[in-house]
Amino acid sequence: MMKTIVKTTGLALGASLLMTSVAAAQDDVRLRLNWMYYGSHAGFAHGYVAGIYDDYGIDLDIRSGNGSSSAHRLVANGDSDFAYGSCGALITLASQGADIVSVAVIDATGSEAVIVRPDAGIESIEDLRGHVILTTANAGVNTFFPIVLSNAGLTEDDVTLTNVPDGALVSSYLQGSGGAVAMLGGLDDKPAEIRANGGDDPVLFPYSDYGVDQVGYCISTRRDLVESNPDLVDRFVDATIEAYTQTEADPDTAVAAIADIVGGTMAEEQGMMQARSVLDVTLGILYSGANTERQLGLNVPSDWESMVSLMQEYNDLDPEAEAASFYTNQFID
User: What is the model's pTM?
Assistant: First the structure.
């Protein structure tokens, strides 16, 4: 960060030194998103453009990601300071030894679904037997798909799950690449993206209809950062909560912030309408039913316990794992 040196005296000198001190106190922080910008990220974009992170002494660098697992992994290995990604993916990585923990929840409930082409004649999950389903390698949506299959009376061997790059997921789905009739994705962003690319409204099978009770997306950081610099973690969480609170009150301004950052088609009318459609889904799941006081960012213990129990039953998670080991509420005021 460049600093301007001003020679002055008296009160002006005091004010100048104070301004320099504030500028010098800025911490460089890298936030890793789960994917490229889409509507759910509007709160982070608004916090950046409106100077909220600056107000908390944070010089924020927002980077796109390549899936939730990848985003959390980049935090664990020190590439990034914080990540926004699937809580299920966080549990999987943390249980494998990654030094990460959730410090706040944004999407309090899951929005994951099996998204089916309307011309495929698929009327239930059971009808997917023998068919090709598209996904991306690092997507958090993959974590609970085996549970959906199991609760529908299927196994992973009954379908063919094919990985494609995230940027090609919707186009491959629309083209029926490799005979695919469906894809895995979020109810928040994928239906809007399908419509924006000329596709018909898909048939949706939300994971929640198949026994998947989960926490959606959380903010992760390293445990060693929590221990070594709790003040920084606290300021980042507070800034993010303020940014999403303002986004709740004025979503159009938050969508405009994404347009300011990304430009291109996301700054055009259709792109902004798509981002707003996605953001509306996210704003509708900021609080779970168990979050009775509607405290934004709260890691609700019962929600985490339910998700961990599911993963222990269906995803080979260590039966001794305790839900409370994957999150902390010490930064939620």
Answer: 0.81
